[in-house]
Amino acid sequence: MPYALLRPLLFSMNPEQAHEKTLQMLESANKAHLLGFVYAKQALPTECMGISLLNPVGLAAGLDKNGAYIDALSELGFGFLEIGTVTPKPQMGNDKPRLFRIKEANGIINRMGFNNHGVDVMIDNIEQAKYQGVLGINIGKNATTPVENALDDYIYCLERVYPYASYITINISSPNTKNLRNLQSGDALSQLLDGIKNCQLRLANDYGFYVPLALKIAPDLDLSQIDDISRTVIDFEIDGLIATNTTLSRTGVEGFRHGEEAGGLSGRPVNHQSTLILSQFADRIADKVDLIGVGGIETGELAVKKLHAGAKAVQLYSGLIYKGPGLVTDCVQALSGDRYG
């Protein structure tokens, strides 16, 4: 059934219920071998972080937090998938309601709070999946872990997911875990990346292969923070930077229902700021660190703008909710036309 016909039904549910229902329907359609006929995978070979991607359009973290729907999501035409954010121990996340649509602006506010079943459950799900493509795993810290002990949680997850990941994303930019964004600056970031990088190199030696690291950052950064992060990721030879996570700004949703809910804002309203931050990082580090652009992509043309701003690849999430899975094909086609047109 075309997404345009399904959307009114899904939007009649509360957003979190619709999220779960959508994934269940995708799983059922995949088991019936229907998805591959509808959403053909389009090749646009791309290199990012030393990884060969089928195409540069990926799934952003957050849609499949536990890696429970990898096979179904892989049939929607993505060139790569990112699952998570996962934490060492299971956690419920924040109290409901915690997910809100702002339909007038094609925006979403969430304060989910890293709700997930824990890293061991994720690994079980990955082991059961048949997917052989590029899989990114996004890791975070438990809410009960003091921020000064965050490194322990990241290393715990890193050690466990390393043999299953094509790349690993360090999420220090969610606004929904108390004090997490404090890790984005100064000595806190240096100490975190020093510990994580040492762990990565040890694991690379142990396993005999190198899994790249990416850092996911917020859009709510000033130029001095951008300068600091740029220097730090270069110093610690981080492989990728994902720009950006959700924003605390409410620009573009003022006066709309749910526009003042607490949490991170994604979708169309964050597109301009996320692309601006992306371009500012590109000016500083694009020759040394590969960039992935995410935030407010709801058309193929906006995906092209991310690459023009300095990204090697892009990721989708909120745009899928408003536009449906056909957005993946639209983005790949637009990027293909831009590259070869």
Automatic annotation (TrEMBL):
In alphabetical order, the GO MF annotations are: dihydroorotate dehydrogenase (quinone) activity
**Its encoding gene is what?**
pyrD
Which cofactors does the annotated protein need, by name?
Answer: FMN
UniProt binding sites for FMN = 61-65, 85, 138, 171, 216, 244, 267, 296, 317-318
Pathway of action: Pyrimidine metabolism; UMP biosynthesis via de novo pathway; orotate from (S)-dihydroorotate (quinone route): step 1/1
> In terms of domain of life, where is this protein from?
Bacteria
> How is the subunit organization of this protein annotated in UniProt?
Monomer.
Q: What CDD domains does the entry give?
A: DHOD_2_like
As its record notes, the protein acts as a catalyst of:
(S)-dihydroorotate + a quinone = orotate + a quinol
Q: Which family does it belong to?
A: Belongs to the dihydroorotate dehydrogenase family. Type 2 subfamily.
Annotated substrate binding lies at 65, 110-114, 171, 176, 245-246
Record text on cofactor binding = Binds 1 FMN per subunit.
Q: Which GO terms describe its cellular component?
A: cytoplasm; plasma membrane
As recorded in UniProt, its EC number(s) are 1.3.5.2
Q: What is this protein called?
A: Dihydroorotate dehydrogenase (quinone)
Its localization reads: Cell membrane; Membrane
HAMAP family per the UniProt record, alphabetical: DHO_dh_type2
Q: Which UniProt keywords apply?
A: Cell membrane, Flavoprotein, FMN, Membrane, Oxidoreductase, Pyrimidine biosynthesis
Q: How does it sit in the membrane?
A: Peripheral membrane protein
Where is it mostly found? membrane
